[in-house]
Amino acid sequence: VQLAESGGTLVQPGGSLRLSCAASGFTLSSYDMNWVRQAPGKGLEWVSYINTRNITVYADSVKGRFTISRDNAKNSLYLQMNSLRDEDTAVYYCAFAVGAIRNGMDVWGQGTTVTVSS
Amino acid sequence: DVVMTQSPLSLPVTLGQPASISCRSSQGLVYSDGKTYLNWFQQRPGQSPRRLIYQVSNRDSGVPDRFSGSGSGTDFTLKISRVEAEDVGVYYCMQGTHWPPYTFGQGTRLEIK
Fold first, then answer.
1. What DSSP element (H or E) covers B76?
2. A43 min Cα distance to partner chain B (Å)
């Protein structure tokens, strides 16, 4: 079971970026998925969630700017990030819970780094 | 949102000695199903987070039994009975009871003295 994030790069404030998370060793469509981020030298912040019926939830800090989605045929998860701000600079992890979602994420990717700067 | 407060934020420990991290929530964490969704994560330097404990005291597969979790209501503790070098890193508590959102504590950095 593995998750591999990609798509992180340097982007200017106000710009857009799409992160991808490729799943291997399991069928992503069977699980609810999350994005969690970590700003440089800071703690963990949950960003977004999508369940198996494509119901989505967002942190207030990204609501209206970020969109989580999944492509079951490609076994992949995405995070479309628009109107990026300096404070969105972080390592972004995709993660999921094998068991109850309230137990938090027990499988994590290695992360991809997004830097928002002019 | 529920605020999670950890202490201490920095924890120097001698190898082989015990360590204890406290986590306090701004609201009680008992869910309507009777379970308490307080979880602990470890993040070693340069690595992704890893869940250690879920529902206060249940160790994840592969987690050494020197790690234990306890607590109830709003006060929780992660204990390491004998610290080893591989335990260096940052430890986070996280609540799932009042999801969404998940909220994490600030993190406690464990280092070897």
1. strand B75-80
2. 6
Question: Which residues of chain B lie closer than 8 angstroms to A43, CB-CB?
Answer: 90, 92, 104-107
C-alpha torsion angle, residues A76, A93, A56, B95 (rounded to 10): 140
Only one residue has tokens 């119901």, namely A55
pLDDT digits (tens, 9 = 90+) for A36-95: 999 999 999 999 999 999 999 999 999 999 999 999 999 999 999 999 999 999 999 999
In chain A, what is the greatest distance between 2 CA atoms, to the nearest angstrom?
Answer: 41
Residue pLDDT, tens place only, A16-32: 999 999 999 999 999 99
DSSP codes, A74-110: GTEEEEEE-S--GGG-EEEEEEE-SS-GGG--SEE--
Amino acid identity at A98: V
Contacts with B74 (C-beta within 8 Å, 6 or more apart), sequence order: B24, B25, B26, B27, B28, B29
B96 CB neighbours in chain A (<8 A) are 100-104
Which residue in B48, B53, B92 has the most chain A C-beta atoms within 10 A of its own C-beta, making it the best mutation to test that interface?
Answer: B48
User: pLDDT at position B31, please?
Assistant: 97
- φ, ψ for residue B30 (rounded to 5)? -85, 125
Would the CB atoms of A46 and B102 count as touching at under 8 Å? yes
